[in-house]
């Protein structure tokens, strides 16, 4: 069976991002999100998520910039601090773990360190192999070069048709309401992502491809497939 988690990164970054992600869940195909616990909108995001029981919420680990994440001890201190903050905000453990700009997987050694840190939680870590990852639903093929076709419906359905295979797959996305409350080199693309992910009939179109939309709640016991 082909099962797809559509995960929205950057939850907690700003009110506009929070609103966009929750809209993409309530009115679209987003099934999961990842919370940035150190950002100013994290508290509001965690409170709002309590009203959406079907939405799984994971930890979007952020490199604080003052630590060497290639040092296992420093990585562990930062991870555990953000994990405890996640628990304070949500009252529960994350359903999955990933990171901003994929910093946890910049090297094989770093991925192995984070795999050991996440293992006691029993949840998937992006890049570990328990859940396949698709990151091509992204509107910039290279920094500063926008290709909005890559975040529109035809390309999204192409990705799902071609890259979602048997088992669990995660497709990352970054929807947001753009209202001037945060700055980013990736802005207009987020608005297009939101429009695409909430298009009428999209859920049915995904199911017509033989793909079931699920959240990370369903992936908890997926076995590792990558040797670290």
CATH class call: Alpha Beta
Specify the structural class.
Answer: alpha/beta
The largest pleated sheet is described as: 7 strands, parallel
CA radius of gyration is 17 Å
> Could you say what the CATH topology is called?
TIM Barrel
Q: How much β-strand is present in the residues?
A: 15-25%
The tally of beta strands, per DSSP, is 9
H/E element order:
EHEHEHEHEEEHEHHE
CATH architecture assignment name: Alpha-Beta Barrel
Number of domains: 1
Structural shape: globular
Distance between the first and last residues' Cα:
26 Å
**CATH homologous superfamily designation:** Glycoside hydrolase/deacetylase
Arithmetic mean of pLDDT: 94
Residues in helices, as a percent range: 25-40%
Structure annotation, total helices: 7
Ranges where pLDDT stays below 50 over 5 or more residues in a row are: none
Overview of the structural elements:
The protein has helices at residues 15-26, 42-49, 72-90, 108-118, 153-163, 188-197, 202-208; strands at residues 2-11, 32-35, 56-61, 97-99, 132-134, 140-142, 145-146, 167-173, 211-213. With 228 residues, the chain is an alpha/beta fold. Helix 1 links the parallel strand 1 and strand 2. The two termini are 26 Å apart.
